[in-house]
Amino acid sequence: MKKIGLIFLLFFGLIFGSHGQTISENGLIRVGNYQSPTPAKYRLYPTFNRFNFLRLNTTNGLIDQVQYDVESENRRIDVLNSIPLVENGEIDRFTLYPTLNNWTFLLLDQLEGSTCQVQWSFDRETRLIFKIY
Fold it and tell me: Which residues contact 45 (CB under 8 A, 6 or more apart)?
């Protein structure tokens, strides 16, 4: 019975462990790519801050910073970019990739190949997104 339980735990860890956090070569915890196999207009990407996620509209590249908490006054959604990168794009056109910088993600247009740097922050003035040429 113990062997069956151990095999189940190993199998479960292999399936679900590859999509979570991993430790990179330099010892930093990396957040994996949370791309689901099912198409979705919106996706949530974890940041290194446990109370903040980035919500991506996969059709047009719009990103919001979502903050949750047990205290209602700390729950909010802040806009990172308010101008769509494309009009009427298809689902899953855009995806986010974390970097080793806690505050920076890369936004990839999976059809055109264009890439943007995304900076999230608690301060409105330091949130930004700009195209990498």
Answer: 31, 34, 53, 54, 55, 56, 96, 98, 105
